[in-house]
Specification:
- The chain is mainly alpha-helical and 25 residues long.
- The protein has one helix and no strands.
- The protein has one domain.
- The relative contact order is 0.14.
């Protein structure tokens, strides 16, 4: 299930970006 892994990795990256943005705010 490489597709699922890619999706999970992408979703994790988005969450990290959101968390970083929230910290900046």
């Amino acid at each position: 299930n490489e597709t699922l892994e890619d999706i999970s990795e992408t979703g994790g990256g988005l969450l990290l970006r959101l968390q970083r943005r929230l910290k900046q705010l």
